[in-house]
Amino acid sequence: MSRLVERVVHGLRVVIDRDQCVGFGDCVKEAPEGFKLDEDSIAAFVEPEADEDSIAAFVEPEAVERERLLRACDACPVDAITVWDETGRQIVPSRVGI
Fold first, then answer.
1. CATH code, domain with 60
2. What is the mean pLDDT of the segment spanning 7-28?
3. How confident is the model at residue 34 (pLDDT cuts 50, 70, 90)?
4. Does a cis peptide bond (omega within 30 degrees of 0) precede residue 61?
5. Which domain holds residue 41?
6. How many CB atoms lie within 10 A of CB 76?
7. Is residue 97 part of a domain?
8. Would you place residue 82 in the very low, low, confident or very high pLDDT band (cuts 50, 70, 90)?
9. Is residue 38 part of a domain?
10. For residue 24, what pLDDT is reported?
11. Using CA atoms, how far apart are residues 61 and 43, in angstroms rounded to an integer?
12. What span, in angstroms and rounded, lies between the C-alpha atoms of 8 and 55?
């Protein structure tokens, strides 16, 4: 069973496959206000400081510019982060030749 974590930011659906992530941290380097590595060195969305019942979310989703967010997602060397645009078309990782 795959552990998928999903958020919508700038109209983009961003999904982290936590089973596929190996913790290189390239997404964190590109957009530290959007991504972090958790205690298991697996990519996660940055969560707001709140009580235990809060739902994980970007602290300030608009703080990560759309193009930089896409670069951060595309930086994953194992394609553990997938992004779909507003029309439902997958844009990260790019599906060259499909």
1. 3.30.70.20
2. 91
3. confident
4. no
5. 4-92
6. 24
7. no
8. very high
9. yes
10. 92
11. 16
12. 13
